[in-house]
Write a structure and sequence with these properties.
Pfam family, one: PgpA
Shape: globular
Catalytic activity: a 1,2-diacyl-sn-glycero-3-phospho-(1'-sn-glycero-3'-phosphate) + H2O = a 1,2-diacyl-sn-glycero-3-phospho-(1'-sn-glycerol) + phosphate
Distance between the termini: 41 Å
Membrane topology: Multi-pass membrane protein
Order of helices and strands: EEHHHHHHHH
Transmembrane segments: 39-56, 61-82, 102-125, 146-165
Number of helices: 8
Strand order of the largest sheet: 1-2
Number of strands: 2
Structural class: mainly alpha
Radius of gyration: 16 Å
Strand content: under 5%
EC number: 3.1.3.27
Largest sheet: 2 strands, antiparallel
Length: 170
């Protein structure tokens, strides 16, 4: 039994090779991290960690600009991937998790403890989906819908992370 996704979605036979060799699916699947059968969203968020760290090295303004680029590009990437797969928000599409963690980390100075707490908060909000995240997840479609619920989870997580940081707990 493989830990990696090999599945038939609609008319498409998905294999790791078919995903990794298609530029849109490669990005949508978070550089391949969405291939894991178990917890692909968590694995996509793990894949966001080095991206976040590299963006931080570029400086604050570049971090914000690059994060915005990831979010905007994600609408198209996720929308095209959903069309290719014939399924809205297929579990292996994790570009939205990459964007969500980047958004989570926007408001606090980078540190590994802050990243760990941000990671946990983001995963919690992304899994539990409190209102309005659940409403967006159910009502907004296309690439915009795939991205928006995770961006909201990132904003909510980032807000709590900021409060925690301001209290001196990080």
């Amino acid at each position: 039994m493989s830990i990696f996704l090999t599945d038939k979605i609609g008319k498409n036979e998905l294999t790791a090779k078919s995903i990794l060799t298609d530029p849109v699916l490669f990005l949508a699947f978070g550089f391949g991290s969405g291939l894991f059968k178990k917890a692909p969203g968590t694995m996509g968020t793990v894949a966001a960690i080095p991206v976040c760290w590299l963006f931080v090295l570029a400086g604050n303004y570049f971090y914000y600009a690059l994060t915005l680029a990831v979010v905007v590009a994600g609408v198209g990437i996720c929308g095209m991937a959903a069309k290719k797969l014939g399924e809205h928000d297929f579990g292996g599409i994790v570009w939205d998790e990459v964007a969500g963690l980047l958004v989570t980390m926007c408001w606090v100075p980078f540190s590994w403890p802050a990243l760990l707490v941000g990671f946990v908060l983001f995963r919690l909000f992304d899994i539990v989906k409190p209102w309005p995240i659940i409403w967006v997840d159910r009502k907004v479609s296309g690439g915009f819908g795939i991205m928006l619920d995770d961006i909201l989870a990132g904003v909510m997580s980032g807000g709590i992370l900021l409060i925690i940081a301001d209290m001196g707990w990080l």
